[in-house]
Amino acid sequence: MTLLELQRRMAEAVMLPLTRTDTMQQKARNGRSMMAEAAAFIKPNDRLTSFERLEIYNRQYWFRIISAFAEDFPGLGAVVGQAAFEKLTRAYLTDCPSQSFTLRNLGSRLETWLLEHPQYAGKRLELALDVVRLEWAYIESFDNATERALTIADLGQLDGESQLSLQPHLRLLHLLDAVDDFVIDVHRRQASQGVASNAVTSAKHLRSRRLPASLKRGDIYLGVHRYENAVYYKRLEREEYLLLRALDAGSTLGEALDQAFTSSPLPEDQRPARVQAWFANWAELGWFCRHKTAAARRTARKRVN
Amino acid sequence: MNNSVKTLILTAAVTGLFGGTSARLNAQPAAQSNGQASVSANSNVGTAVHLKSNFQDTGKHSCKGKNDCKGQGGCKASDNGCKGKNSCKGKGGCATDGSKMPDA
Fold it and tell me: Which residue segment(s) compose the domain that A273 sits in?
């Protein structure tokens, strides 16, 4: 057996989902006995069999990724409840195992997966999806790069045909009413419980926060961004959101302004002052950076919900 | 919208960009004592989100199992900025005991 074969065999065994009682399964995915599989490349010692030695790694792998997942999505746990969240976690991580060197990416496929498996969200699918989008946006905003913001010199040639790019850490979301308040509250409760707590077992406690009553889509627009090493949820007006989204998609400044005010109820005489205030705020937060290529924009477009 | 309104709005956008950029460049970078970010009084940062894996955490095991600063994002300069994220390799923000990296 080559080293590569051994590594793949070990990974296959370690990543095999646990039983309901958190022990290693008796059979591998190919139907082979795990007892025989373990004996093929793990030596027993005077206290543990090959199976038992391999099981230690199998269990620790799953405990670690379940814990990491729960830490990243406490709001989802609060929405669906403790028991359902544990089922959802195991089902998701079985279908979408870690494929990255970093557990930071563990939840990258959760929104898509949950849309395909709505039964795991119970009766609150829409709310659960929005919470997932918001909690994933937090992770992205926490980790993504900050590029050099525009300077006065960069603004010299600006006109209606100019294109502006947004910072990679900025995420734009269109969510149900009050989802942001709910998630912030859950995260603050989680933070107050301390590092030693187990987020899986605390989901029941977190759910004691009253869930948002309104499920009317279109109520809030958010910019999730990082400023001075902290992540913020910033509420946006509908026109602000549309304008930023258009700029992010590569529209020129003139086109983006047109798109933002299409079917807007905001009186025309109030629009210039509002636009000036928005751009001043965004520029002060450093949200604009030099225009990227079309390929880079396509990647960045994933920021928009 | 007619063309004069469009022109006004475009002018307002450019004016805002200049004003906001000037304000940012002239601002002091330090956070205020109340924890709010230091932007001008009429600016709006939003509501800060607190996770136990957020940047202020200085506990042990700051990188436990996640390791990810490679986007040159929030971990690049903060002590323990990667707590819980594990990919601070070579970035200096992820000491497991809360300590800073020694000077090279």
Answer: 144-178+226-305
